[in-house]
Every structure is written in structure tokens, then in C-alpha cells.
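Side project, low priority. Logging it here so it doesn't get lost.
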Amino acid sequence: MDKSFSHKSSLLINDPVYGFTRIARGVLTDIVNHPLFQRLGRIRQLGLSSLVYPGAVHTRLQHSIGAYHLMSEALKTLVEKGIFIFDAEVEAAQAAILLHDIGHCAFSHVLERVFLPDVTHENITLQMIEQINEEFKGALTLSIELLSADCKKPFLHELICSQLDVDRLDYLCRDSFFAGVREGNIGAARIIRTLNVYDDHLVVEDKGLYSVENYLMSRRMMYWQVYLHKTVVAAEELLRSTLRRAQTLVRNGHKLFASPALSFFLTQDQPQEYADWLDHYAELDDSDIISAIKVWQHCDDKVLSLLAEGFINRHLFKVEVFDASVPPSMLDEWKERVATVLAISLADADYFVTTRAVSKELYSEQDDKIEILYPDQTIKDVAAVSRVISPDDKHRMQKIYLCHYRL
């Protein structure tokens, strides 16, 4: 353990949220310097949230380094409490968390739904890590094992991926910091200091219960107030419609300006079936999309031009929020109105009237549970002992967004 946390031969990074953090030279700095990791510096962590929260322009690279910092702190805490962790496991866990978001696409889930609807970013992440592992001659093999729920030490996997992992701890702290939203300030350091291991699984000592409750409530607030803010959803739907229209035009023989990587995904119906699709994917970042849409404002297709101009100049869709499904008659009415006002066909009006269903739950008792450890060595699910998790909180909260062109 001492070698991984030595101050000698390490890379010192000044993080705006946590201050100085050290990355040991070797495989970890090789990861940071790798082109696939550096690509994360060209992808915003919160995508289009900066349209509502102007300060939210931080990147996935910053988040990955922040998650690394919290992973290092969590591992030190567990070792101090007598949990035996090999040096190789420490480095593997640190490497895994540095790489956990490497498969994200430009503008994240928006482009995934358009270009790769049948492939998850988690699957892409694993493929990219395996590719880097080949370059590193197997140095990431243990890290890949830790990404699996079947690894020999489940608590190491749970630090990377669970309902209380360092990924979530960092993005709540970081996103609230840059967005200027106080609700996400969860006290990650306090939670980490109360972590422990019981029967090879990650647990929280009972003195950390209130901090965990605050974390769960803060996460819900951040989702509905920041990540799924109706204006953010409107911008995402406008971007999705813009890219869908561009796809349709390109596949019908229309010539559009696009970088080689973006052109590949606009052209191919099933890009993942091509041997080199991952290489094209790795070349995509936010700048490819923005530069293309800036040019598309002036194209001769009226629909794409209107969509692109609206996206670039923040003339976003108007949003109406429903608790249940949007009546089909309302959708038809809006499409007819848009078609009339813009003098386009009903088929083309589909690009200007969209719906999106979103659901989130405060806590799931079916997934990796957050378990509380008491002094008598009993373990209880946080849902069973928390006074802030009501029966209603155990169900998914759903909202339906109707997004349409502003008339």
C-alpha cells in the first residue's frame, strides 16, 4: 500500500474541488496521458446543462480525476481500519475509476440514443479499456476484473459501481460546485471516513447514516433540478432532432459538412457492425458536433437549418411536463400547428414535436444495497432504518416531457 500512496515520483494535480491530489507515476500516469483519456477533456460532464447553469462547463476528465482522488481516500480509510488490500489491488482500483467513463460519447447519452441505440456506454467503456490493456501488455487485467460484480473482493467493485460509489460521490460534489447549486454538497469526505467492509462487502458505519440520507436526498434534488431540468431536456431533444434530420439527409444522398468521425455515424445505419467503428467513435467529441451544427444553420434544407439555428442561438423547444403519458390528440394538434406555421409537412413536423419519458428512484432495494453497520456487528439496509426514505421514495418517480417548437 505504501508504494501507491508515496509522494515520490508522482504527478501532482490541483483539483478545484478537493485541492491537490497525487497520481503515482507508472500505469496510472500512462492512463492520464493516453489519447482516449485526454479525449474526455473535450467532453463536458454535464452536456447541455450549461445552457441553464453557465458555470457547468467542467469536463469528464476532471470528474475522472476527482473520482480517482475519492477512490484513493476510500482505500486509505479502509486500510487504516485493518482491511487488507494488496498494492496491486489499490493500483487496479485507481486505474479502473480513472477509466470508468472513458466510453462516453460527445454530449453523452444524447448521441448514444441517436448513433448507437443498441450499445451502452458501459459496453463501449469495457471495449476501450480492453484496447488500452492490449497496448499496456495486460497491466489493466486486474482493473477489468474489478469492473465485474463477480470479482473476488466485491467491496472494491462496489467502490467503483454501486448505489454509493466514488463515481456518484464525485459527480454530486463536482456538478453542484460548478453549477452553483448547493443541494449537491453532500460531504463526501464524511461518508468516506465512515466506510468499512463486512463479509467482503462495502458498508457504512452507523455514525454515517445521516450523511448517507443527505447523499440520497441530494442526488434526487440534483437529478430533477440540474440533470433533468426541463430546459436541459428541451436542448437535448433539439440536439437529437438536429442529428436525426442530418442522418436522414445524408442517407438520402445529401452532402453535409461533418468531420470524418461524425460523417461515419451519420452515414452508417448499424455502425457497430464495422470493424473500425470504435476508432471513429474515439475521434468524436463535443467540438465535432458544435462545428457541424454551426455550418448546418446555412444549409439549403429548411428543417435542418431551423433546428441548427435554434440549437446554436438557444432558441430552444418549449416544454410541458406531465405525470402520465401525453394524450395522442395533443401530439397531433401540435404537429399540425407546427406544420402550418413553418409551412412544412406533417412528417417533417415530427422533428419539432417530441416526447421523452424519464424516471428516477431515490433508492433501490433490489440493486446493490447500502448497508449500515452497527457496533454489535449487525447489518441493516438503509431503507429499513432511515426516517427520510418513505415508502413512496422506494418507487420510481416519472415525468413525461412534451417538447415542441415555440410558436
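Brief comment: The longest helix spans residues 230-251.
Revisit when time allows.
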